[in-house]
Amino acid sequence: MFRQMQLAIVSVLTLAAGFAQTAARPAFFSHARIERSGSRVTVTSNDSEPLLQAIAALRLEYGWQVDWEQAPGYSRFDVVDDTSPAWRTTHPNDPGVTRPSGGSFVASFSEPGPNGEHLALYELVEQYNATGNPGKYSFRTTEDGRIEIVGTQVLDDVGRPQDVRPILDTPITVESAERTVYDSIKSVLAALESATGKKLIFGVASESLFLNTRVTVGGTNAAARRLLERALAGTGRQLNYDLGFNPDVPVYVLNVSPVGRLSSRAAP
Amino acid sequence: MEQYPTVEGSTWTVGEGSAGHNQYGLDTVGYGYGVVNLIQTQGPAHGVDFPCYIDIYQLVSYDGADPFADNLLEQTVGSNSVMVCRAGVCSGTIQF
């Protein structure tokens, strides 16, 4: 009996990046911490993007699907200098680099029951927006039940709130055709680059899932986000996406990760 | 960065290879051109020393059966090169 050879590749885990840092940096957390007291859950993050760090921890704690789009901060009120002193000494006249100006963030909410992620994440976003961390965010849900947390406000060069339209809300046109999921995503990003003049790259750590499945995606004046979601749905898997923004290049980076929960299995 | 414990649900299937039975289909793991280019061009100013490394932990099973291999996949990024390794077997240095 012939069986199709299949490999299930399990668990692309957190990337252990050996980036040697030479400059003194804030003592950020590697992961947000989740603690319980009675019926309350407290999530504590400390990162240049503390909202994303909190969301990442909650995804893994509860197995929630949550999409995230960074508020595209660019001013000295939303980003801080992150230039390595050692690099600066050898590049005295070159532009430096920045990182988001975030730091500590603590939020709490009632222990969510089944389908309780909407209220918990809504409260998370509300509490984040009350801090001085960079960007203001909106909690949204789609007709398909996806949860999106998207940046909708930054601070301008003089520190005034500036509303921004999330770039994935931009209407784009993509010819309807059957493609691999990978090519469908690339088509959406290419159309979005044409529509906005902004650079976007697909930064996923594994492309296999997207190369091995095909989907028909297209639309006229459709929100890029909806087309992206249709492409991802073609995999038949539950996936989160994150769209980050680097103002130094400038470039948006799209990452996609599987919805999953932490398992008790020991790491290899 | 600290390594996470295993994440349930983060699986995908690699199809059958075109060379016949008992051939794995295409699998690609690691960062592509765009992110590698970003690391190479932006990393040094952030204090990244080359080479730097990205480790990915991979568990492999056959047709839903018990896992038969734990692989450490490592992508080494130099200032103008990339090298990839799986379970200690490495490509040559790829100019990038």
List the helices and strands and how they pair.
The complex is a heterodimer of chains A (268) and B (96).
Chain A lengths: L6 E4 L5 E2 L15 E5 L2 E7 L3 H13 L4 E3 L9 E3 L3 H6 L7 E3 L3 E7 L6 H13 L6 E6 L5 E9 L5 E3 L7 E10 H16 L3 E3 L5 H4 L2 E10 H10 L5 E8 L4 E8 L2 E2 L6
Helix pairs in contact in A: 4-6
Chain B lengths: L6 E2 L2 E4 L18 H10 L9 E11 L4 E11 L3 E6 L2 E2 L3 E2 L1
State the domain count of chain A: 2
Radius of gyration of chain B: 16 Å
- What are the secondary-structure elements of chain A, in order, as H or E? EEEEHEEHEEHEEEEHEHEHEEE
Unreliable runs of chain A, pLDDT <50, ≥5 residues? 1-23
Number of helices of chain A: 6
Q: How are helices and strands ordered from N to C of chain B?
A: EEHEEEEE
Task: Tell me the greatest interface.
Answer: A-B, 68 and 56 residues
Assembly context of the chains: heterodimer
Beta-strand share of residues of chain A: 25-35%
**What radius of gyration of chain A results from the CA coordinates?**
20 Å
The parts of chain B where pLDDT drops under 50 for at least 5 residues are none
Backbone structural class of chain B: mainly beta
How would you portray this structure in words?
The complex is a heterodimer of chains A (268) and B (96). Chain A is an alpha+beta fold. Chain A has helices at residues 50-62, 85-90, 117-129, 181-196, 208-211, 224-233, and strands spanning 7-10, 16-17, 33-37, 40-46, 67-69, 79-81, 98-100, 104-110, 136-141, 147-155, 161-163, 171-180, 200-202, 214-223, 239-246, 251-258, 261-262. In chain A, a hairpin with a 2-residue loop joins β3 (33-37) and β4. Chain B is 10% helix and 40% strand. Chain B is built from one helix and seven strands, in the order ββαβββββ. At the A-B interface, β1, β2, α5, β16 and β17 of A face β1, β2, α1, β3 and β4 of B. β17 of chain A pairs antiparallel with β1 of chain B, so a sheet runs across the interface.
